[in-house]
């Protein structure tokens, strides 16, 4: 493929990830301050438990809106932070949301029960649900959040197919609507002043607008604009296949080497299934390429795609790009089929690069011929490391022997999770600064 060369990305002390992360922290802190101000200005009533409950509810509403922002897949945030980190933050924010909403219900119910001289908080909650507008909606919203929290636990997530987990998570939007209408009905800070009302409408409007833009509007617009289709399907080995995708005006698609898309191939039996596959060659303005190893029914079926098949792609996503360079030279470490974004990234990187490809046997070295030829053209070094998948196969001694100056380079890492964990530990042992280590895990959020 003929690559459209991106201009060199200069190493800079101002890291894009730090800028984006600091911006998110500042945004959240500013909104916490605003919520606190409007709550204090409105007055939260009598009784310590009631006051605590109302604060918990307000902060819970803010966390719910913040969660929507984290999974909106906004390009500016995704390119700088990465979907995997945003998803992880979304998960932990979700558990914070769960506890604030539980606290809201418990404190409010017990507080009102105490003010009424009752010792039956459950009865008090039932009475509020029957008599106060919006309370029943809030109880249903809490129930949905509890279910979502349960299926997000690690033990449950590992047992659920992604499609099942994703379908359940769609009920989060129902919970958002119910919580919002509850806030309108009973939120004293919502109606305390025109400024408070405008603030909360702005918060919810911005959060929901971000989701509609990033998850629906932008993907639809890009696919209508580019009209992607399968151009060719090329077997690379018995269980690896490359799919070439072409379309209109692909030079205007803001994809970079190292990024991935969520691909839907619109066949009769697979149109509903989205899979995250990295680009295995840098975008050249005329076609995109993904290279996939058969690991399940969905990936195995790609071998049988016909040229002309329509494609719906969401993305590009990911921060595994040259945007995050901090040093003039780099080390690219790939495990197995994790070489696909590494091979693409090598096309775009400037400066001297060392590529280390870790596989069980030489026959598993996907795209190694391409990688070797590309490295030769760019003056890079390639090392193929073979052997059983044991943690010490890329030990500190191995890496320092292959790349003596590794602590002075950017390190890009992609591969199976066990291999990545082992290599990350080795990089820490070798004293490679955290800011120079770049990796990304495929992680989808609902």
TrEMBL record:
<dbReference type="GO" id="GO:0046872">
    <property type="term" value="F:metal ion binding"/>
</dbReference>
<dbReference type="GO" id="GO:0016491">
    <property type="term" value="F:oxidoreductase activity"/>
</dbReference>
<dbReference type="InterPro" id="IPR017927">
    <property type="entry name" value="FAD-bd_FR_type"/>
</dbReference>
<keyword id="KW-0479">Metal-binding</keyword>
<feature type="transmembrane region" description="Helical">
    <location>
        <begin position="56"/>
        <end position="76"/>
    </location>
</feature>
<protein>
    <submittedName>
        <fullName>Oxidoreductase</fullName>
    </submittedName>
</protein>
<dbReference type="GO" id="GO:0050660">
    <property type="term" value="F:flavin adenine dinucleotide binding"/>
</dbReference>
<dbReference type="InterPro" id="IPR050415">
    <property type="entry name" value="MRET"/>
</dbReference>
<dbReference type="Pfam" id="PF01794">
    <property type="entry name" value="Ferric_reduct"/>
</dbReference>
<keyword id="KW-0472">Membrane</keyword>
<keyword id="KW-0285">Flavoprotein</keyword>
<keyword id="KW-0411">Iron-sulfur</keyword>
<dbReference type="InterPro" id="IPR039261">
    <property type="entry name" value="FNR_nucleotide-bd"/>
</dbReference>
<feature type="transmembrane region" description="Helical">
    <location>
        <begin position="198"/>
        <end position="218"/>
    </location>
</feature>
<feature type="domain" description="FAD-binding FR-type">
    <location>
        <begin position="223"/>
        <end position="323"/>
    </location>
</feature>
<feature type="transmembrane region" description="Helical">
    <location>
        <begin position="135"/>
        <end position="156"/>
    </location>
</feature>
<dbReference type="InterPro" id="IPR017938">
    <property type="entry name" value="Riboflavin_synthase-like_b-brl"/>
</dbReference>
<dbReference type="GO" id="GO:0016020">
    <property type="term" value="C:membrane"/>
</dbReference>
<feature type="transmembrane region" description="Helical">
    <location>
        <begin position="97"/>
        <end position="115"/>
    </location>
</feature>
<keyword id="KW-1133">Transmembrane helix</keyword>
<feature type="transmembrane region" description="Helical">
    <location>
        <begin position="168"/>
        <end position="186"/>
    </location>
</feature>
<keyword id="KW-0274">FAD</keyword>
<keyword id="KW-0560">Oxidoreductase</keyword>
<keyword id="KW-0812">Transmembrane</keyword>
<dbReference type="InterPro" id="IPR013130">
    <property type="entry name" value="Fe3_Rdtase_TM_dom"/>
</dbReference>
<keyword id="KW-0001">2Fe-2S</keyword>
<dbReference type="Pfam" id="PF00175">
    <property type="entry name" value="NAD_binding_1"/>
</dbReference>
<dbReference type="InterPro" id="IPR001433">
    <property type="entry name" value="OxRdtase_FAD/NAD-bd"/>
</dbReference>
<feature type="transmembrane region" description="Helical">
    <location>
        <begin position="24"/>
        <end position="44"/>
    </location>
</feature>
<keyword id="KW-0408">Iron</keyword>
<dbReference type="GO" id="GO:0051537">
    <property type="term" value="F:2 iron, 2 sulfur cluster binding"/>
</dbReference>
């Amino acid at each position: 493929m003929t690559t459209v060369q991106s201009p060199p990305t200069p190493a800079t002390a101002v890291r894009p990830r730090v800028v984006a992360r600091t911006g998110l922290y500042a945004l959240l802190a500013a909104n916490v301050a605003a919520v606190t101000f409007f709550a204090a200005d409105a007055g939260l009533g009598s009784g310590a438990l009631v006051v605590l409950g109302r604060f918990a509810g307000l902060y819970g509403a803010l966390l719910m809106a913040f969660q929507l922002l984290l999974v909106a897949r906004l390009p500016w945030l995704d390119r700088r932070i990465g979907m995997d980190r945003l998803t992880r933050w979304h998960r932990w924010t979700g558990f914070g949301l769960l506890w604030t909403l539980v606290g809201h219900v418990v404190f409010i119910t017990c507080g009102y029960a105490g003010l009424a001289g009752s010792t039956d908080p459950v009865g008090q909650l039932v009475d509020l649900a029957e008599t106060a507008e919006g309370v029943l909606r809030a109880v249903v919203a809490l129930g949905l959040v509890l279910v979502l929290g349960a299926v997000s636990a690690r033990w449950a997530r590992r047992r659920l197919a992604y499609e099942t987990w994703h379908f359940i998570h769609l009920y989060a939007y129902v919970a958002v609507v119910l919580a919002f209408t509850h806030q309108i009905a009973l939120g004293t800070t919502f109606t305390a002043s025109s400024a408070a009302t405008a603030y909360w409408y702005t918060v919810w409007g911005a959060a929901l607008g971000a989701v509609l833009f990033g998850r629906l509007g932008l993907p639809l617009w890009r696919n209508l604009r580019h009209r992607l289709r399968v151009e060719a399907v090329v077997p690379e080995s018995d269980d690896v296949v490359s799919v070439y995708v072409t379309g209109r005006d692909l030079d205007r698609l803001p994809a970079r080497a190292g990024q991935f898309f969520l691909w839907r191939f619109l066949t009769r039996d697979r149109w509903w299934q989205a899979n995250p596959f990295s680009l295995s060659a840098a975008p050249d303005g005329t076609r995109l390429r993904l290279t996939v190893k058969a690991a399940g029914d969905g990936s195995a079926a790609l071998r049988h795609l016909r040229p002309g098949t329509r494609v719906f792609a969401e993305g590009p996503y990911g921060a595994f790009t040259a945007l995050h360079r901090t040093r003039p030279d780099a080390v690219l470490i790939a495990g197995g089929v994790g070489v696909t974004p590494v091979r693409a990234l090598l096309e775009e990187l400037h400066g001297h690069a060392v590529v280390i490809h870790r596989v069980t046997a030489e026959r598993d070295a996907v795209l190694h011929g391409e990688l070797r030829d590309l490295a030769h053209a760019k003056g890079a070094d390639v090392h193929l490391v073979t052997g059983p998948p044991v943690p010490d196969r890329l030990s500190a001694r191995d890496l320092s022997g292959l790349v003596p100056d590794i602590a002075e380079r950017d390190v890009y890492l992609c591969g199976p999770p066990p291999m990545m964990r082992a290599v990350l530990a080795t990089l820490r042992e070798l004293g490679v600064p955290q800011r120079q280590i770049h990796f990304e895990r495929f992680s989808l959020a609902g």
